[in-house]
Amino acid sequence: MALPARLGAWAETTPVVVDDLAGLERMAQLAFCDVKVFLAAPPTGAFETLWVGPGTVY
């Protein structure tokens, strides 16, 4: 997964998919606004929906 150096304004309206918790934490480090993130769970084929804000995951 490649993440931009800083999430742009597009992140406010475009969901982002990450494939592991490290990617989720990286999103929290980069976020300057709330971002809808889908955490992929490949073994089950399911996605968990989370929100990432500046420095936090909720």
What report would you give on this structure?
The chain has 1 helix and 4 strands. The chain has 58 residues and is an alpha+beta fold. Helix content is 17%, strand content 34%.
Mean pLDDT, as a whole number? 80
Based on secondary structure, the structural category is: alpha+beta
Contiguous helical run count? 1
Helicity, as a percent range: 10-25%
State the order of secondary-structure elements, H for helix, E for strand: EHEEE
Straight-line distance between termini:
21 Å
Low-confidence stretches: none
**Which value, in Å, is the CA radius of gyration?**
11 Å
* Major sheet details: 4 strands, mixed
Spatially, the strands of the biggest sheet line up as: 1-2-3-4
Descriptive key words:
58 residues, 1 helix, 4-stranded mixed β-sheet, alpha+beta, single chain
Describe how the helices and strands are arranged:
Blueprint: E1 16-18, H1 21-30, E2 35-41, E3 46-53, E4 56-57
Quick take:
The chain is of the alpha+beta class and 58 residues long.
